[in-house]
User: Fold this.
Amino acid sequence: MTRVSLSRLPGERVLAVEDGGERTLALAELPSYVAGREGDGPRWVWDDTARWYPPLLAAGVRVARCHDLRLGHHLLRRAPAVEARLLAGEQSEHWDRLGPSTPSDPALFAADDTAEHLRANLEDARQLAAVARASGPGEAARLELLLAAESAGALVAAEMTYAGVPWRVDIHHHLLTDLLGPRPPRGARPALLQAAVAEVREALDAPGLNPDSRPELLTALRRAGLEVTDTRASTLRALDHPAIEPLLRLKRLSHLFSTNGWAWIDQWVSGGRFRPSYQPAGSATGRWSSNGGGALSFPVQVRPAAVADDGWTFVVADVAQLEPRVLAGMSGDRALARSARGADLYQGMVDDGAVASRNDAKLGLLGAMYGATSGESGRMVAGLTRRYPAAFGLVEEAAKAGEHGEVVRTLLGRGSPGLGDPWDLDPDATQVDPDSELRLRRAYGRFTRNFVVQGTGAEWALCWIADLRNRLWRLGGAGPLESRPHLVFFLHDEVVVHTPVDLAEDVAASVAEAAATAGALLFRDLPVDFPLNVSIVRSYADAGKPGATAEG
DNA sequence: GATGCTAGCGCC
DNA sequence: AAAGGGCGCTAGCATC
Assistant:
């Protein structure tokens, strides 16, 4: 396949390099150039999809394939099968340092320093060589798949931000007004929030109390005879006092007001679309993170405002028990794969005679993946290890490796950050004291234990949305992205597709076919089912409800 | 006035 | 006796 690498040159120009030669063009010509070449199906190679792709989308140009060098570089640098030395060379220290471009720093090609003018073709050659020489049977092919999926994910992320989630501001406003009262002036509390404050003050006999201040609130609660050391809702719920009900209501309303209130609408909804910003591979495990809009917590409370356009609908799909299924596939555990047949893996474990109840199955599996060693969950792990030795053994090995300070990897070859790298630790923690050293190793062991499953789950999900993206494109007519069925939301194991109503059933079928494709790509040796819950709904809030299910 | 941290909440 | 992974966002509070 032809690879065309694009690099920015000083003076609003672009260098395009491919096997047959190179040419330069004006930045303004880029969309028409890319659109013209796209027919040959090249893989576009660029430093950062989040910088190159949005202007193309804005010009109505969609690309089929790309290779994101920034994501590739970071991935390969940590991949245990890759020799780091192969990635070193001209400008490579710049690639090491290249961070994601963020919405707050959007200026495509703004500055004129070296980092702005990295030669994509040089880095591309190094990455290709590093993958080709990966050590171990099948490693190069797995890394190729991972890089392709990672880059496809970056395309999806840019397209979703571009298209946005259809958002009915009028419905959102209604919702806020019903719960909080009319929009208050800046700095003031909405009426119903203020009313809750008054009730709390009254019930605690604390007329001047500012309930937003933890210390003040704690003092007031103690003065009322409530022995609490924190002000969490779960703590308060256990108490019996007239102040508790208004206080919990106040917390709920206050959270809605501050996180998804009018200010949120002003900032993140425009032109009837909610456009969060996604950061592919933003977390160490390869899961996406987000740096604006709060895409990772799309609160149930405001989902009613996500409503498809007239004549359009949403197809919402999530995978049932993704990570346990991934664990079955990557460990080659035939017993667990057998239990995973059908819609409910936990029930499958019960039917298999492995556990007495669905809840026990869930406790045991989650405990194994998160590192629970005690309580009910810990006890279930012990019993299930005998029943599913390969699956439970795999996470156990990953935990041991972590406790020994070793790096672990996902199925496709993403490496975990090392114990010395900043993964989630207090950088000031000087571990002289052997106790904290042990705690640190245990914590790292829990991280590596979870890393292998969560990371491979993220790989499955990337393959899923990458394949789905292509299927959706083929379903549509001849128009631009937003005139065809297209992804508008993705979160770990769930997708939302915005589609013309008459294509909804085809989209639902595509989502399931893409899931099967992803499973086959990752776990060719051991077939594992990845059943989906699929809903065809006008509003996101209706997804998953009885009657919304599209197909079995 | 900017910055960094925590508590608490939300999502998977 | 208790012991669970990954994220983001806001407000308050401390610090410089």
Notes: Residues 6 and 48 of chain A are 10 Å apart (CA to CA). Residues 434-475 of chain A form the longest helix (42 residues). Chain A has 20 helices and 14 strands. The mean pLDDT of chain A is 89.
